[in-house]
UniProtKB/TrEMBL annotation:
It comes from Paenibacillus pasadenensis. It comes from the Bacteria. Signal peptide: none annotated. Pfam families: HIM1. InterPro entries: Him1/Fmp52, NAD(P)-bd_dom_sf. This is Nucleoside-diphosphate-sugar epimerase.
């Protein structure tokens, strides 16, 4: 029987993070769940602790809480929402890197983070380049277990309205089943599937670095059901 442990989730108010928070609270693997972010999740549960951080010092709010914990990072924004490339980089690069450095320094059991399909430090696309640069830096930290998830378009009901994304999601959902072979990687993936894959990977992925491409996420998510 596995020892119960602590889960720390950054970004629990987001689309994937909200799904993951629900799974963590239901999971018997964790006796304590710490949800950290810029605002409260609004959720109450016997094993849930909420931590609100200052935007420029997220790691300070979690100081001393990461030793032996599984850290899940599901933070993220868009350049349009952030308002500039610099603001986007602060949320999607600087913030998770600060948390990851703390996780490495304190001896976290694992770090599981949502990246993006096509992430590459050499990409010409700013969004993908930032994601790739983050992956590159995370790989240098010496984390005991690092799992990078690279989902394609994420489907789910968002709190904020994103008209273009909703339209693209509808198209992707309709044509997703037709995407086979090399195109399977580009099928949209449900937020709940990504969340389940994150939890399964934290529990079952080997030590070291693991990269889960988008087409591998459904199978990883099923491991959670098979071993629950």
């Amino acid at each position: 029987m596995r020892m119960a442990r602590t889960a720390v989730i950054a970004g629990a108010t987001g689309l994937v993070g909200g799904e993951l928070l629900r799974l963590l609270l239901e999971s018997e693997a964790y006796t304590e769940v710490i949800a950290a972010g810029r605002r409260s999740t609004g959720t109450t549960h016997a094993k849930l602790q909420g931590v609100v951080w200052e935007q420029d010092r997220p790691e300070a709010a979690l100081e001393g809480r990461l030793k032996g914990a599984d850290l899940f990072i599901a933070t993220g924004t868009t350049i349009r929402k952030a308002g500039s490339q610099a603001a986007f980089r602060e949320v999607d690069y600087e913030l998770p890197l600060r948390l990851a450095r703390s996780a490495a320094a304190e001896g976290a059991a694992s770090l599981v983070i949502v990246s993006s399909i096509g992430a590459s430090a050499s990409s010409r696309a700013f969004y993908l380049r930032v994601k790739g640069e983050l992956e590159q830096e995370l790989g240098k930290l010496g984390l005991r277990k690092l799992v990078l998830l690279r989902p394609s378009q994420i489907l789910g009901a968002r709190a904020e309205k994103r008209t273009l994304e909703a339209a693209a999601g509808a198209v992707g959902k309709a044509f997703g089943p037709l995407m086979k072979g090399p195109l399977a990687r580009y099928r949209p993936v449900e937020a709940r599937v990504i969340a389940a894959a994150m939890l399964a990977a934290a529990q079952h992925a080997p030590e070291g670095k693991t990269v889960l491409e988008s087409e591998a996420l459904p199978a990883e998510a099923r491991k959670l059901q098979q071993r629950s």
